[in-house]
Amino acid sequence: MDYYSLKMRASQQVGEGEQRHEQHISGAERIVARENVEAVCSAMVRRAMTHSKGDPDFINVKIEKVHESDIRILKALPVTRVDVETWQEGLEKAFELIGEAVGSAAGGAGTDAIREFANKLPELLRKTFPMRGAMLYDIATGKRLEPDQARGVRATYMDALRGNVVDSCKNHFNEAIVLATKVANAPGIVAEICISDDPEYVTGYVASKELGYVRIMKMKEAGDENGGRIFLFDSRKASAEECIDYLQKKKVLVDVDGRMA
Ligand code: WAQ
Ligand code: MG
Known about the structure:
This protein is an alpha/beta fold. The protein has helices at 37-49, 87-105, 111-128, 172-184, 240-249; strands at residues 3-14, 21-33, 58-66, 71-75, 79-82, 135-138, 143-144, 158-160, 189-195, 204-208, 212-216, 228-233, 251-255. Helix content is 28%, strand content 31%.
């Protein structure tokens, strides 16, 4: 069977004079069967045209054929949830889980090294707030590996296997479980931490092959428009090029098997 990748991005011109620039409004991507290309395409255009962030001046839709033999099918990470009273508690829990994942990836590195890394996490996370993609952080050297640090690395070419065909309304969890599953299976990836940049969406997650997908129900204050992602990577396990190539180019369908909301 033939599949097609569809990608949409929409933007608007904002500001005056020299300040005038393009602002991102909406984006989406899917991998669907041939017979669904048209319907999914028009749903994407509708999503762009009705977005609360503004009326687009520019919409780009890219449709590419994907050979079935180039698609890797992955089983979705198992999902668990952690309920917390406050966002501060949630953030602390997330840092703790990431610290443990990094510690065990580093072959049970000394607790001091893990504590030192955990202390750096809040600052690293803040640095991701203005980025469109994720930070790729090497736990072996403490260095950032994104070729463009202002933009970050974006995971792309992924969708849910047997996903809802026309789904124009964004569901945070559904999109995140697909992305997190692709990322957790990337060469050298040890763990991921994510906070949405949607001001009203306070649930975030940490994920890895070992942890699975751990939803943390509050990770920021409601109304806060800051969010970001860090992909924690171990350069002793794979090369950065190999990892980035997989994240940006490899086509992945995630078998979500009843996990979708
Ligand atoms: N690749 C890499 N980084 C990305 C990508 C991508 N494809 N898409 C977004 N990011 C980065 C970017 O810096 C955003 O600012 C940040 O992640 C957050 O993205 O179980 O909605 O799309 O209910 O706002 C979590 C769901 C939802 C938790 C996360 O992220 C749950 C979400 P957003
Ligand atoms: Mg967002």
